[in-house]
Design brief:
The protein is an alpha/beta fold. The chain has one domain: Pyruvoyl-Dependent Histidine Decarboxylase, Chain B (3-Layer(bba) Sandwich). Strands 1, 2, 3, 4, 5, 6 and 7 form a 7-stranded mixed beta sheet that branches.
């Protein structure tokens, strides 16, 4: 099974009840809350095409690379950087998260994707990045996610 397409989404959620409910709201905000998510590692198959997000039937099993940050009060950020690869080479994805700001997550993502490229002998130039951040009010649970969804 080799995915031929993929798309990237992000979302954020707050809950008074629990961290799980904040995560559920972040997934719903990203448009993937009604799917069964199967986490996979970070390789984009050669020739896979990035597409705009599509709707799939509820309950669909989908493969995702996901970055998630959650917490109570303060700032949480999650991000992803991806390189889709040239014609015959694979692409790859890196994720970062933490109780920090967009700038710090961006710096981490940049150094990590460059290291993955270096390990593969690839000069990564056309890198894309998405970061989601949330300031969580006192008394609430919060979650942010960024997901690369692979479509078979």
């Amino acid at each position: 099974m080799i995915p031929r397409k993929y798309f990237v989404v992000s979302g954020k959620g707050l809950s008074e009840v629990s961290m799980l409910n904040a995560y559920d709201r972040a997934l719903l905000d990203a448009g993937i809350g009604n799917y069964n998510l199967v986490p996979v590692s970070s390789i984009i198959p050669p020739g896979a095409e990035e597409i705009e997000p599509i709707k799939l039937p509820p309950g669909s099993i989908v493969f995702v690379v996901i970055a998630k940050a959650e917490g109570r009060e303060g700032t949480v950020s999650a991000g992803m950087a991806w390189y889709s690869g040239e014609s015959e080479e694979c692409g790859f994805v890196v994720e970062a998260h933490g109780n920090t700001d967009i700038g710090e997550i961006g710096r981490r993502l940049k150094s990590m994707i460059e290291e993955m490229g270096k390990a593969r002998g690839i000069n990564v130039e056309a890198v894309k990045m998405r970061i989601e951040t949330l300031d969580i009010p006192k008394g609430l649970y919060g979650c942010v996610i960024v997901a690369l969804v692979m479509v078979v």
